[in-house]
Every structure is written in C-alpha cells, then in structure tokens.
Design goal:
The complex is a heterodimer of chains A (about 425) and B (about 140). Chain A is α+β, with helices and mostly antiparallel strands and about 425 residues long. Chain A is built from 15 helices and 13 strands. The radius of gyration of chain A is 21 Å and the shape is globular. The chains are: A alpha+beta (about 425), B alpha/beta (about 140).
C-alpha cells in the first residue's frame, strides 16, 4: 500500500484575499481535500440591517475593489425590482456600459497578471514582465481603459460614488462618452490580439461535465438583466433563486458553500456565460472565439483564460455600441421607493452570478440582507475540480502537483474577500 | 511626490500624511490602485514615494532607497493579499522601461495599524523628518 502524503498551501498566491488548500493522498486516491477560505468574516449583511434601502449600493460596493459595479448593480436591481421600476433607454445603457468597464478591468487583471504567469511558468506578473513586456504593457493599458469607463460614469474607478438606486446622480453627455471611443477601439483590437495569444498557451487535458449557471437575456449577452438558466434545464426568474439554490456552512471555510437544491455543485463565471450565451456575443467577439478554437461551449477550466479574453473583446465592442447609440436620458434617475417588500437582484460579476436579496420595511429601512457572491457559490465546483484533477497525476512530485492544483483554483479567479461577509456564531455551553 | 497608505489604519497613513503636508505647495490627485502608480509618475523625472514599512526596526525609523538605481530590499514595504505592493510596481516599471529617471522611496517604520488609530508619536516625528527632507531637496 502506498504511503499517505499531504500537500498544504498556507497562502494561495495570485488570488484576491486569503485562501489555502489542503490535500491528503494515498497513491492516486484523494483521502481529503479542502479549499479553505480563511479571510475573516466581513459582516456586510449585518451592517446593512437598519440602513436605508438607498444606501445598499454604496455599502455593498465596499465589498470589492475589483468588482464594485457588480455589487452596486445587484443591489440597485433588487431595490428597483422590489419597487416595480425598470431602467430603460439611456439609463439602462449607462448601467450596462459601466459594467462593461468593470469586465474589462477585472478580466485584464486576471488574464495578464494573475492567470497568464501560470501557463508561462512565472511566479508572478512582475517576474513575467521582463520577458513579456509587450503583453504586460497591453494588460496594464486594457485595465486602465476599463477603469476609465468606471471613472467617467462612476466618479472614480474603485468604489464608484455616482451610482444610485434608480440610476445615477449625474449622467454624462454624449460628448463626454465620445472621449472614450479611441481608447475602446484600441482595446477591442488589443483584446482580439490577447485572445489569439492566450489561445496558444499550453492547457492541461482536463474537462468536466459542469452544470453551468448564468443569466440569460433573449436579445443580448446577459450582464445585468435576464433569467437565471443552466445547461441542465434550469430557467427561473431572479426572485425564484431561493427555491432552487441553498447554502450551507462547512468548518473549513468562512464562506458559505452553495449547491442546487436536490442536486450538486454548479459552475458560475465566464465559461458558464459563454457556454449558455455564446450565440449572443458581438460579431468581433464571436470571430475571436472561433479563431481561438472555442466551440459552442467550453468545459476545460484552464481554458477560461481564453473565454475571459473573448469577453474583453465583447465588453469593448458592446461599450462602443452603447456609446454610439447613447441618448442622454431626460432625468439622471428614476424615483424608487420600495416599501414592505422583498427585492431580489442579480447581475453577472466578472467571476459569475452575484445574487442579492433585501427585505425592506414600511419606512424604507433594510431589515434583512443576503448577498451570495460567485466565489462562494463556486467553492464546491473548485473542490470537485481538484478531486478530479489528481487521479492520474498523483505521481508528480509535490511541488509540481501543488503548482498545478493552485492553477486549477486560479482558473476561477476567486475573489475571496467577496466571499466572506457572513458569520454564523454558535455558542456551545455545557 | 506620492504618498501611499490607508488613513484609516493608524500608522499605515504615514505616507499620506507626508503627502498632505507637502501638497499645500501644488495640486494633487487621489488614485485607487497600486498599478496606477506608473500612470501617476508618467512624465515626471524626479519622483518621491513615501509608504509605510515594517522591517522589524524601531517604529519611526525612516528607510530611504534610490529605487532608480536598484531594486528595493524584499519584505520591507507594506504589502497585501489584495493587490501588488509598491516594491513590485517598481520592478514591473523597471522591466517595462517606465521608471522615472530619479525615484526615491521613503519607508516609515510603523508601530500600530489598528483601524481607526491615529499616527503614533514616533511615526508623527518621522513624518516631520521626511517632509523636511523633501522640502529641502
């Protein structure tokens, strides 16, 4: 009988926040495996109780410095749907446009600085920069262009301050938006080049049969609006989330695990969106995907880097379309007054579907808040990937196996800080 | 002159405090992320960066590095699991040919970075010292 061995990673590198991994093996057999999120609980859901409904976008934006728009959008969507208000015209375009900015900056960060070094054999993007200066410079510029959309519409790129329930405090003129066009045209072309580049990286031969879950909209590649669908027949309205998904606590993670009720894990993020909605991508993004060898679906998590690059192409092209067709709305925001109601809001954060639910009382104060970020929902899928990845590779030396398993986690672009705002405190007394 | 830090985390705000005192001499801007440092110093040929440091020295110790000449020693400036630190941005800029001609980095050794705490007396003193040095430069 072969000896047991353990692989322990105390701090995962190139993920946002604090996570660890533990693996116990006997031969090819995985005895124990844990993806551990030990970033301390952040208690956001508790902070929200007793605050005005209108404060939710500003408070939840603070959950993440990389994807604040996702939090603001899901929060606004929840309050607006609770009040029966829907953004249309220019306001809807702006909400989608600022989200494109977030996809561009967040995906550029992951593709170039967090993920590409894995395939090229570097410890970090800093180490990679001397051998791949052109790519690193391109990544920096793409990220900056994404940020510039967020700054123009949101007032600043990190935790934007110009977003409110019902719309914006101030809306830009068409002329102001036009200043973004030359950069976005460059960015679209750079993203096509990026897709080409990353599609040639060496990918491990590894596929999994995921249940992909994402928003779906009949007329567009869904970002901020739509129904929740899966490749196994799920097709529900946003307010049916709790009937189909459930959360549970495990001892080794400060983030709740999520699963399908009566089912198992599911997979959120770029691969899920692409596999469910690829026919709705913009033309250049579709071409880039085809050229990169992506079929109608992608089930190799390591190739998510290619899908992210395709989504950067899409986000640039979509941003250009939104700017081209933009007409200033007559008012910067719609009146929204949720009272005695529960609101559900969903949007596609760069890492996957982000669900918010709020109960609001008769005075407009929040009495209950639930925030279910994509990384916590992906934890089960991450652990299953790791379990499936080990057999057949267990003969690798520890350092190589560890390196590959860390890569498998990074495929999800996990945002650990986002995942941990819950605390279930149990006091046991004799 | 660029100040780096978090004003809500006690001594980690030392670099920002230096910037606040120096900025009375001209315009200033606030930026969010560490990667943006390269954009901030773009076009400038003489740049000073002040950040918090934690090397094990006595609190208030001022470390000074000529970063245009050689990499910063590892593990001195504050870093984070959420983004890359100043020392890493400097090395990335060096690889990309985006370092200013002269880049002096001050690291002020911290004592207390408790949320909501102010600057401790020795760090306050170090801030004075760095401001004087920058003003005299």
């Amino acid at each position: 009988m072969s000896a047991e061995r353990e692989i322990i990673v105390d701090y995962l590198a190139r993920v946002e926040g604090e996570g660890a991994m533990y693996l116990k093996l006997r031969g090819d057999e995985v005895l124990d495996l844990k993806f551990k999120i030990f970033e301390p609980p952040r208690l956001f859901e508790a902070f929200l109780r007793g605050r005005r409904f209108s404060e939710a976008p500003d408070i939840t934006a603070r959950i993440c410095g990389i994807c604040p728009i996702a939090y603001q959008t899901s929060a606004c969507n929840a309050m607006e749907s609770a009040a029966g208000v829907q953004l249309t015209g220019g306001l809807r375009s702006l909400r989608r446009l600022i989200y494109c900015g977030e996809w561009i900056e967040s995906h550029a960060l992951h593709v170039f600085f967090l993920h590409a070094p894995d395939f090229l054999g570097y410890e970090s993007a800093i180490a990679m920069a001397s051998d791949f200066p052109e790519q690193v410079a391109m990544g920096l510029r793409l990220k900056k262009i994404g940020n510039s959309i967020m700054s123009l519409l949101g007032g600043r790129e990190i935790h934007p301050i110009n977003i409110r329930v019902g719309g914006f405090y101030r809306v830009p003129t068409k002329g102001e938006l036009a200043t973004l066009v030359p950069d976005l045209e460059w960015a679209r072309d750079a993203a096509v080049a990026t897709t080409r580049w990353v599609s040639g990286l060496p990918f491990p031969d590894f596929e999994r049969d995921y249940e992909f879950v994402a928003l779906h909209h009949p007329d567009e590649y869904a970002i901020h609006e739509g129904r929740i669908v899966s490749n196994r027949g799920l097709d529900i309205a946003v307010d049916e989330w709790t009937e189909h998904f459930e959360e549970s606590q495990v001892s080794w993670s400060n983030a709740l695990h999520a699963r399908r009720k009566g089912g198992g894990s599911y997979h959120l993020g770029p691969m899920a969106r692409y596999s469910l909605n690829s026919s709705l991508l913009t033309p250049t993004a579709r071409e880039a995907a085809t050229e990169a060898g992506l079929g109608a679906s992608c089930t190799n998590p390591f190739r998510s880097i290619v899908v992210r690059a395709v989504e950067i192409v899409f986000a640039c092209e979509e941003a250009l379309r939104l700017i081209e067709s933009y007409r200033s709305p007559s008012t910067p925001f719609l009146e929204v007054e949720p009272r005695d109601v529960t609101g559900h809001g969903v949007s596609e954060a760069p890492r996957g579907t982000l669900y918010h639910r709020y109960a609001v009382d008769s005075e407009g104060f929040i009495t209950e808040a639930h925030i279910i970020p994509p990384t916590s929902q992906n934890q089960l899928s991450i652990e299953e990937d790791l379990r499936a990845y080990v057999p057949g590779r267990a003969s690798l030396p520890d350092d190589q196996l560890q390196w590959q398993l860390e890569q498998a986690i990074r495929c999800y672009d996990p945002c650990i800080s986002c995942a941990t705002h819950f605390l279930d405190l149990t006091v046991v007394r004799d | 002159m660029i100040g780096v830090g978090n004003p809500s985390r006690g001594d980690d705000g030392a670099g920002l405090e230096v910037a606040r005192r120096v900025r009375s001499r001209g315009s200033y801007q606030v930026v969010g992320g560490s990667y943006e440092l390269m954009d901030v110093w773009e076009g400038a040929d003489d740049v000073v960066v002040v950040d918090a440091a934690r090397s094990g020295s006595v609190a208030g110790t001022v470390h000074r590095f000529e970063a245009h000449a050689e990499p910063l020693p590892g593990g001195i400036l504050a870093t984070s699991t959420h983004s890359i630190g100043v020392a890493d941005v400097i090395e990335m800029a060096r690889s990309l040919g985006r370092l200013p001609e002269r880049l002096v980095v001050y690291g002020i050794e911290v004592l207390d970075v408790t949320p909501g705490a102010g600057l401790t007396a020795s760090v306050e003193h170090a801030v004075d010292e760095v401001v004087k040095e920058i003003d005299g430069a």
